[in-house]
UniProtKB/TrEMBL annotation:
The keyword Transcription does not apply. InterPro entries: MoaC, MoaC_bact/euk, MoaC_sf, MoCo_biosynth_MoaA/MoaC, Mopterin_CF_biosynth-C_dom. The lineage of its organism: Bacteria, Pseudomonadati, Pseudomonadota, Alphaproteobacteria, Sphingomonadales. It comes from Qipengyuania flava. The active site is at 132. The gene is moaC. It catalyses: (8S)-3',8-cyclo-7,8-dihydroguanosine 5'-triphosphate = cyclic pyranopterin phosphate + diphosphate. Its EC number is 4.6.1.17. This is Cyclic pyranopterin monophosphate synthase. Homohexamer; trimer of dimers. It comes from the Bacteria.
Amino acid sequence: METGLADLSHIDEHGRARMVDVGDKPVTARRAKASGRLTCTRETLELVRAGKAPKGSVIATAELAGVMAAKRTAELIPLCHPLALSKIEVSVTPDDELPGFAVDAMVRTEGRTGVEMEALTAVSAACLTLFDMLKAVDKTMSIDALRVTAKEGGRSGAWHRE
């Protein structure tokens, strides 16, 4: 599927970046979910579970970082609209299967544009915080599978990843 410049909402007819005008769109309830994961060694996972990570409460700090980042998405991502967010939930869950941590975020607002970027930013910041807090004990960690898992509201309605 070929996309022309006219099809890209953040590009004007001259190829320059622009912020999309959402002023004429109706205000609707909007919600987005995103997920990602940080893989690490089993020893690192057990260190966190035992509460013995050198930098302290790893999971609580990562969850807080995710909430804080979602609130500042418009400052971090060019052309994102600043939004009044009504709810942000970030959860970091130890996962033996990885081994590592599953990270999930849900963001809500009443607005003219969606909150997918805020949910993705929350997950990204939480994963980066996990990495930062554990890098002294595990050089093998990786962050991956960052994705939007659901969105609701707006003209396109509801969408959920299979």
